[in-house]
Design brief:
Elements: E1 2-4, E2 18-25, H1 28-47, H2 56-61, H3 72-88, E3 92-99, H4 100-107, H5 114-132, E4 137-143, H6 147-163, E5 174-180, H7 187-205, H8 210-216, E6 229-232
Parallel strand pairs: 3-6, 4-5
Antiparallel strand pairs: 1-2, 2-3
Helix pairs in contact: 1-3, 5-6, 7-8
Amino acid sequence: MDESGTASLTTIDSRAPVFGLGFLVCDSDRYVNEIVPAVTRLKIATFGHDAVILHAAEMRNQTGDFAVLLNAPQRESFFDALNAIILAAPFDLIAVVIRKREHAQRYGSRATDPYELALEFGLERLKPCMEELNQTSIVLVAESRNMTENAALLAGFDRLMSQGSYYQSFGHLKIDLRFAPKSANSVGHQLADICISPITKFADTRARTLPFEIAMKKILNRSGWQNGLKIFP
């Protein structure tokens, strides 16, 4: 689970007035045996090591480790390979985007924190997947921010688990929420970031870029409210 943008409703940047949260949903065995090795091989082939952390903004700006992408042929080869990995990888994506200005205008002082709201919408869509597989327990790994923000998210998560949302109850599920720093170099977080970033941008600008089209092919394909894409309001 990885986010794009900031969740603050106090200061809304006109250049990025949206907040996105991406859930990468996959089987743990296939994650370890298929997804992680494919990304690791790409890192080593491109950068010479696997310690680099794939981050959408840095890749776009071609800074830091990604300065190698200033070379046009290498850049084309890297993104072609990355797109192929994403398309072939055995995961589904739940993408939730909160348009913060509209959310604040509609609900005023009653507006729910965008991160907590995105978590709620995401869990509502995750629940039917678990039920279909007769699965009652999962591990959900969020990218760690700071102690205050982590504590606030955990409190909101605990409320959802105990009280449910307006539409769904979660009490029978065992969802273990963990926090991992960016330095943990989680492939799941990196792929979630790469996918949620262009979807968040689309919610703001309606820009249908190639990264957006690639990410949309991974969206959990369900009908109605169970569909993996939620843009609110």
